[in-house]
């Protein structure tokens, strides 16, 4: 559940961060991108030692933006030596769904690099504009690690913005070198890797006298060395060294990979959201001190500019006037908020949080003063009274205002509610889950609409039937507690044939369109 919710935040973040990306149309004469489908996918993949496959859906906006860039890149790369082949699969097409499932496609577009006739599969983590795609794929098709032989090699390889992992060896053989090479194959899609005999060629050079892995990064201590060549230890070292003490979320796209890592970490997440143009310098050093203190203790720290984190505000239900603010979200979804924070309050507030002294922040819209439509409005602050303690049979829709399936359902729910108007034991209600925190110990809301029925005696059932007036009314009648009669003894599985699963799934996929933040 968490992962999916975060993918929504990430999608929004990417949408925001990429508004300036060029959206130039090209007139395609001859398509260089191969179109694959279930009939020829395996055959074509098996014939290639290196092929790139995009899984897309025709309705996905990010896929449409990518298409002309992907085609341009395919055209340039077709004359590379050896040629690099780019392909695409319509993963929305029923007949191709099996391939999408096999390749664990969870959002659109998803791009995979398949090597050795499809035997090795890697996620594409490069940029999404033509030049960037070309550069990234040229590096991917070459050796996993480049040799740095000269100052010229170094000058063309390194830049100031990326993470580089370099193995320094007295000779290119032996167990250390082999372990490094194995690691390079594994991590080549995530980082730039190189090996050299001379540490002095590296930008943050310093001689070393035994096999060393040097990780160069554009933040914090700028470079870190490790001499433990155990493959697992190396991976842990890299994982730890590549997370900044404070992740910065501003409009700079070179921060994308760190924002991505921040969201992926299982830790509690701290968001300090301030106005960078006037408050960054007052907050940053104090925040970083606290973050350094808690590094590796289960909290990750992000500093965001209010100008680019509007959707985080929306997601958490925060208001502009609450900034500068510090919000912590734990893995279980529980949130803690300090609005209008001052720089000197950061350290004591985090300390109180860590000691369990801060009360959770639960978001609710105000309880509506007038609530006389057929479908009643439930907010977080009224859910106890209206749902849990009302003694009624409640049919409750969790919706998002922007969700098309929810809009389609609204008039049907109205009719259902009208048909129960004179039945005071039944309540038809809706809950805007984008503006109110869902009580996650009672309801699991992963997509919209999610519908639950809670009987007067407290039996909670998901509604997964057809979204028609008749089916909903039948369902309520069959499952409500009737004071005079005993409750129905039909088996659960019989009642919850998920006839409408596809509609629900479509809505979930829409939620995830945009995939994740990319390098
Ligand atoms: C794969 O088959 C589809 C039709 O089923 C066709 O449109 C497409 O061009 C084929 N791709 C290749 C690379 O042959
Ligand atoms: C290489 O990696 C293997 C497997 O992780 C490990 O057993 C071995 O000790 C490593 N070699 C060196 C020199 O660290
Ligand atoms: C941030 O501060 C600048 C300068 O004071 C101001 O112009 C801008 O409107 C502020 N941005 C937000 C989102 O409040």
TrEMBL record:
Belongs to the protein disulfide isomerase family. It catalyses: Catalyzes the rearrangement of -S-S- bonds in proteins. It is found in: Endoplasmic reticulum lumen. Pfam families: Thioredoxin, Thioredoxin_6. It comes from Buddleja alternifolia. Its EC number is 5.3.4.1. One of its GO terms (cellular component) is endoplasmic reticulum lumen. Disulfide bonds join 60-63, 403-406. One of its GO terms (biological process) is response to endoplasmic reticulum stress. This is Protein disulfide-isomerase.
């Amino acid at each position: 559940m968490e992962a999916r919710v975060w993918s929504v935040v990430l999608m929004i973040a990417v949408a925001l961060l990429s508004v300036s990306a060029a959206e130039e149309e090209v007139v395609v004469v001859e398509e260089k991108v191969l179109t694959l489908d279930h009939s020829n996918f395996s055959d074509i993949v098996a014939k290639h030692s290196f092929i790139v496959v995009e899984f897309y859906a025709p309705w996905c906006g990010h896929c449409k933006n990518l298409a002309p860039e992907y085609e341009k890149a395919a055209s340039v790369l077709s004359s590379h030596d050896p040629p690099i082949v780019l392909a695409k699969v319509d993963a929305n097409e029923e007949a191709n769904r099996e391939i999408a499932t096999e390749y664990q496609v969870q959002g659109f577009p998803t791009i995979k690099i398949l090597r050795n006739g499809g035997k090795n599969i890697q996620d594409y983590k490069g940029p999404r504009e033509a030049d960037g795609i070309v550069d990234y794929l040229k590096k991917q098709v070459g050796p996993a690690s480049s040799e740095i032989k000269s100052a010229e090699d170094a000058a063309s390889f390194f830049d100031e913005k990326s993470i580089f992992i370099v193995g320094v060896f007295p000779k290119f053989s032996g167990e250390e070198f082999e372990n490094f090479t194995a690691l390079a194959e594994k991590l080549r899609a995530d980082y730039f890797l190189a090996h050299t005999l001379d540490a002095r060629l590296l930008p943050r050079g310093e001689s070393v006298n035994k096999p060393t892995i040097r990780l160069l990064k554009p933040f914090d201590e700028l470079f870190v060395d490790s001499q433990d060549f155990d493959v697992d230890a190396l991976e842990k070292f890299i994982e730890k060294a590549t997370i900044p003490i404070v992740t910065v979320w501003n409009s700079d796209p070179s921060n994308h990979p760190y924002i991505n890592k921040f969201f992926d970490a299982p830790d509690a997440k701290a968001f300090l959201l301030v106005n960078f143009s006037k408050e960054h310098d007052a907050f940053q050093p104090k925040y970083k001190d606290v973050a350094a203190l808690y590094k590796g203790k289960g909290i990750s720290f992000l500093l965001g500019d209010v100008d680019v984190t509007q959707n985080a505000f929306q997601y958490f239900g925060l208001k502009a006037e609450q900034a500068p603010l510090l919000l912590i979200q734990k893995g279980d979804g529980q949130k803690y908020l300090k609005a209008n924070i001052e720089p000197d309050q950061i350290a004591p507030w985090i300390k109180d949080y860590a000691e369990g002294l801060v009360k959770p922040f639960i978001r609710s819209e105000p309880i509506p003063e007038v609530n006389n439509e057929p479908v009643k409005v439930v907010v977080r602050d009224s859910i106890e009274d209206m749902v849990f303690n009302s003694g009624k049979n409640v049919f409750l829709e969790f919706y998002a205002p922007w969700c098309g399936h929810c809009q389609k359902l609204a008039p049907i729910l109205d009719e259902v509610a009208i048909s129960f108007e004179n039945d005071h034991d039944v309540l038809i209600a809706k809950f805007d889950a984008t503006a109110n925190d869902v009580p996650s110990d009672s309801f699991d809301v992963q997509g919209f609409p999610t519908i639950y029925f809670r009987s007067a005696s407290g039996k909670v059932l998901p509604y997964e039937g057809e979204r028609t007036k008749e089916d909903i009314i039948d369902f309520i009648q069959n499952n409500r507690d009737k004071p005079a009669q005993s409750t129905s003894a039909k088996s659960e599985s019989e009642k919850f044939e998920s006839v409408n699963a596809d509609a629900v799934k479509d809505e979930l996929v829409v939620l995830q369109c945009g995939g994740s933040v990319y390098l």
